[in-house]
Amino acid sequence: MTDSPGTGRCDCGAAAGPLGECVDYYYAILAEEQTDPQMYRWHTTVVCAYLLQHPARAHEKYLDTQFRLLQLYLDKGLDALLRVAAHQVARNRHGVRSGYDMAPLAEYDPLPSGSPGPFRAGFSGMPFGDGSFVTDGHAAYGRRIQTIAEATVESWRTRTA
Q1: What H or E segment, with its residue span, contains residue 28?
Q2: Which residue, among 96, 65, 14, has the nearest Cα to 26 in the 3D structure?
Q3: Comparing C-alpha atoms, which of 121, 114, 137 is closest to residue 39?
Q4: What phi and psi values does residue 132 have, to the nearest 5 degrees?
Q5: 3-state SS string over 49-101?
Q6: How far apart are the first and last CA of the chain?
Q7: What are phi and psi of 144, to 5 degrees?
């Protein structure tokens, strides 16, 4: 299933916001990140949460890692997530062919089977003003992304089989 144009609801169940459905918010966030290095710090969290809330848009083989990355972020914070992401990029740059290094994520729960339930927070609920998601500051933006990450993990943990 994909976002459902014209229905006023996204495939994740969220009502469309002023910018449209979640996909519209997602692409607007990705575009704004490109010009705002502080905002870009939450890029991995944004991508993981969006794809876990919209698994039909994701590559299934990566969802488990994305679920674990969100748990790492919620457990140890943004700086820990950025260190793990930098480690993976460095491995890729050096031609390591053994795949993703799961050691930093081993302590986190694997992605449950089934489908996630409704999400108490999602992308189409993000405030957007004056052409930006950070009009009230980066800390407030980060708290909103954290709330979406929490809602995503929570929903998957209470999923329906």
Answers
A1: helix 22-33
A2: 14
A3: 137
A4: -150, 155
A5: HHHHHCHHHCCHHHHHHHHHHHHHHHHHCHHHHHHHHHHHHHHHHCCCCCCCC
A6: 17
A7: -65, -40
Query: How far, in Å, CA of 31 to CA of 133, rounded?
Result: 11
**Half-sphere exposure of residue 104, counting CA atoms within 13 Å on the CB side?**
20
CA distance 136 to 116: 31
Q: How many CB atoms lie within 10 A of CB 96?
A: 12
Q: Dihedrals φ, ψ of 34, to 5°?
A: -65, -25
pTM to 2 decimal places: 0.90
State how far the alpha carbon of 34 is from the alpha carbons of 30, 105, 124, in Å.
Answer: 7, 27, 20
3-state secondary structure 91-105: HHHCCCCCCCCCHHH
* pLDDT per residue as tens, the chain (161 positions): 344 445 578 989 899 999 999 999 999 999 999 999 999 999 999 999 999 999 999 999 999 999 999 999 999 999 999 999 888 877 777 666 666 778 889 999 999 998 887 899 999 999 999 999 999 999 999 999 999 999 999 999 997 65
Residue bearing tokens 């189409």? 124
